[in-house]
Description:
By secondary structure, chain A is mainly beta. The first copy, chain A, is globular. In chain A, a hairpin with a 2-residue loop joins strand 19 and strand 20. In chain A, strands 10-9-12-17-14-15 form a 6-stranded mixed beta sheet, with no helix packed on it. The first copy, chain A, contains 3 helices and 23 strands. The first copy, chain A, has helices spanning 109-114, 274-283, 297-300; strands at residues 5-20, 23-30, 39-42, 46-53, 62-64, 88-94, 99-104, 119-124, 135-144, 163-166, 177-180, 184-191, 197-201, 207-211, 214-215, 226-229, 234-240, 245-251, 314-317, 320-324, 328-334, 357-358, 379-380. The N and C termini of chain A lie far apart (68 Å). Chains in contact: A-B, A-C, B-C. Strand 23 (379-380) of chain A pairs antiparallel with strand 9 (135-144) of chain B, so a sheet runs across the interface.
Amino acid sequence: MNAGVKEFHLVAETVIRELAPGMRARLWGYNGQSPGPTIEVVEGDRVRIFVTNKLPEHTSIHWHGQRLPNGMDGVNGLTQAPIPPGKTFVYEFVAQRAGTFMYHPHADEMVQMAMGMMGFWVTHPKDPKFAPVDRDFVFLLNAYDIDPGSATPRVMTMLDFNLWTFNSRVFPGIDAMPVHLGDRVRIRIGNLSMTNHPIHIHGHEFEVAGTDGGWVPRAARWPEVTTDVGVGQMRAIEFDAIAEGDWAFHCHKSHHTMNAMGHDVPTMIGIDQKDVVQKIRGLLPDYMAMGEAGMAEMGAMEMPLPDNTLPMMTGQGPYGAMEMGGMFTTVKVRKGLARDDYKDPGWYRQPAGTQATEWTGALPVPSRADAPRADSGTVDVRKPTRHQH
Amino acid sequence: MNAGVKEFHLVAETVIRELAPGMRARLWGYNGQSPGPTIEVVEGDRVRIFVTNKLPEHTSIHWHGQRLPNGMDGVNGLTQAPIPPGKTFVYEFVAQRAGTFMYHPHADEMVQMAMGMMGFWVTHPKDPKFAPVDRDFVFLLNAYDIDPGSATPRVMTMLDFNLWTFNSRVFPGIDAMPVHLGDRVRIRIGNLSMTNHPIHIHGHEFEVAGTDGGWVPRAARWPEVTTDVGVGQMRAIEFDAIAEGDWAFHCHKSHHTMNAMGHDVPTMIGIDQKDVVQKIRGLLPDYMAMGEAGMAEMGAMEMPLPDNTLPMMTGQGPYGAMEMGGMFTTVKVRKGLARDDYKDPGWYRQPAGTQATEWTGALPVPSRADAPRADSGTVDVRKPTRHQH
Amino acid sequence: MNAGVKEFHLVAETVIRELAPGMRARLWGYNGQSPGPTIEVVEGDRVRIFVTNKLPEHTSIHWHGQRLPNGMDGVNGLTQAPIPPGKTFVYEFVAQRAGTFMYHPHADEMVQMAMGMMGFWVTHPKDPKFAPVDRDFVFLLNAYDIDPGSATPRVMTMLDFNLWTFNSRVFPGIDAMPVHLGDRVRIRIGNLSMTNHPIHIHGHEFEVAGTDGGWVPRAARWPEVTTDVGVGQMRAIEFDAIAEGDWAFHCHKSHHTMNAMGHDVPTMIGIDQKDVVQKIRGLLPDYMAMGEAGMAEMGAMEMPLPDNTLPMMTGQGPYGAMEMGGMFTTVKVRKGLARDDYKDPGWYRQPAGTQATEWTGALPVPSRADAPRADSGTVDVRKPTRHQH
Lengths: 389, 389, 389
């Protein structure tokens, strides 16, 4: 704070970011981290941000979503000269509206964002009674394409990313979100990747309460269990934590809850590899046949990996291998958490009789379609159907 | 029904699914079909589902969108142990809210969903007068990557799918949806593929009346002709069938209304292939030059195909080849259909004078841009323009 | 105008379209242009459109979003016979509802749309006081895949497009949108490409006021700075021009504001190429090492390019190279523009003291994370945080 102005200092520089235990990426970020520090101010604050460029090329910062003087908008060449390596520029403007914003370069933008340069900005409302919540988390979605064994992202990749991250972290490296039963919870999610991320929660419905453009009027909100966050969008979702448990919270694109993998691997499901494996082992004694029965075995096995790589599917839960990666974490709803308690409460203990378990008794006869089923691709749930048991 | 509890039995197993006449896929599904049977219950029902695993690897079922005890949520490793091959697990919970839900594995999820394991769940409202409609169809969107001549999906594919399906069927294998003129029609569409599907209807506007998170308040609905269904989302659209006819209903991504094709084929438009064809025919007598004038010729011709493959563009309408595939069907609006009549009423007969036909009379002079047009990429429809005739 | 009917004549034909100075594409379009002419009529008008086919293959036109007789809907094979090469068909219907529509072929649709066949249609409301605006721009989003040095799009491309266009133009070939300070501005954006385009504006918030399905009720609108326009969707956004300046307006996918590039280029960031460059120069004297410090150098340098290609990053602003391409332009908000003045007002002059500039004074100490940061992927902005300065 300097004479009534809130001052921040962002240093654009190379950073080492641990994506999850076992893998570090060489990124570009701010102040030793990627995403950069979350800037928090209050509606009406005058804010001054010093930006020092320690990168090998010029940069700038665009304050995504803010109302500000055109010359503070950070578009290289258009609204300002670029910040050369070694120099510091200063931005200054009033945080005019409460809400959630992002910041990122608008200079060699494709490269610098692919390298991890981005951050969150929260302007809290002047009136603390405005839209109060009990917990208020922030996430930035990004994606990297890092070859196994390597540490620097491939910056020209447009589609085939292999690491999908929350705040440049992947499962199992992402903290759980502990909340108290009954809490009003807000999660602010910004997307600075190259594709939509449909963010899904288990066991609860939420509404999108705000965007980077403002707060959504109550009457205009939709009930959702999945919101499709577009690129360059921020969605502040809100919900009441109505049920205890460990509730999955993830991107619903199934490849985005995996870690680095090759997408060209042939499918071996249903193919007997015994003969060929014997022959290959004559040449490569460690060779393993994989995928004959699906890929769940990969979630549990220990397979030698190159240095600085994560398994495609990993993570241990209370009931075994979770076979996940990437954009996956949990909301842990508990009774008895204190207001400022963000410690991981451990795994939820399912009360007796509330958990799916093995059944060894008699079974109803399943309804069956004639195989191969050659009828309709449509089903009218109003017409009498043989699908009901 | 067992002592007040509605019981269902899902058997996870290998299934053969005809995608359209001429092509069968080897998928994983439930009870001999993929998608699995649509589960229908009434709000407040206590439901018990037995899940028997006849796959070669373990599985689980997540009840997408449901309020339920955490231990019934079906996330392998996190909320339950996996269901091993050969075993049966039992899930039990109350269907707490009316609406549309999905079910799918949450164990080796990427592989099992790429193989077709998914199904719909409709909980009808307790009050039959709530949001009544005359027709109520359900669709699951999925995509498969099956090499021509093969039958098993490539499960590692992230983006380059070649078969885009409604309920694991492709055009012309998808039933038309016959509705009565004036009907209130609901179509519930769930997306369990890896990309957005913008679902488009011809000749009508609809609104999204519900999501897997609940019913959209009337005042919050938008008028649409295309809704972009994100992955892991369900959209229940509703409209009044205002005009008779055969109205196309499809995904608006043009490649998603095609069947299997190579995306690397060079464009031959405008290239004279006569010389080269003569030379190739010296070696391959059956060789055909293609694509010189576009690809419409492929919709009509009979070209030898590998076994178990569909043409890229296919289907016959009342006026010739329709040149479609994939996620395409029709809503057939007719007078005089009975409430329970779901028989295909055949092609619509266009009344005289209501159909585009050849014109051989005088023509107005078309407005023309100077070629090559080098002006604006923007047009203001408020300024005087030379584009109007 | 013919006996109370508004007549238009569209000629489907090969067109040469300049994408930006330096590159022309060989497309298919209407009346010498791609997109075709914007059709403007008034609600209630009877409209007759003659469509002459000068392409080498048959075609049809679908009037996307319109209420019309089924036989005028333009779906080849289903609602009409195709229009053969050399023939003219006539469509006729009443423009029943005010709004924004698109037109495009529904015959060999994938190919013909990949070649650029599409256009906008605006039906103005009968009541000129309905939803009045001061400026009203229209954009069609499309994408082409044209190999450097070539002019014809690769029509089979599903995902890997390399030219992302507004009205088949790319930056710096797209006109700026000049508006008067305080104007109510509408921009109608239709998407006929193969992926979502999140359209973003700087310095302002907007709302989606209309879709191709109708006008969004005021109470149902969301404040946004980025709207994700799905394929086959039209979004009419509206905002008040609240601040003078040159405000960037673009797709937020960073690769979509670039021109043609290879996505397989390896990343050289941080790699010292001196030795290898010397060796290569023994063979290729002109060889340049690139990308060692990022790619901003490409925005400024003059590198020899193949004929008929655009640089990946290009464009000069008032403060140097802008390093952009593709779907990028500006909204230029000025005082003193006349109502019908669409002339580019030049670059905005930033008032003194309102622009980011170099700072050489004392600096606050930046908050820093411990490097490498191995903690949470989540941040709760309610908990005490060391990220704040």
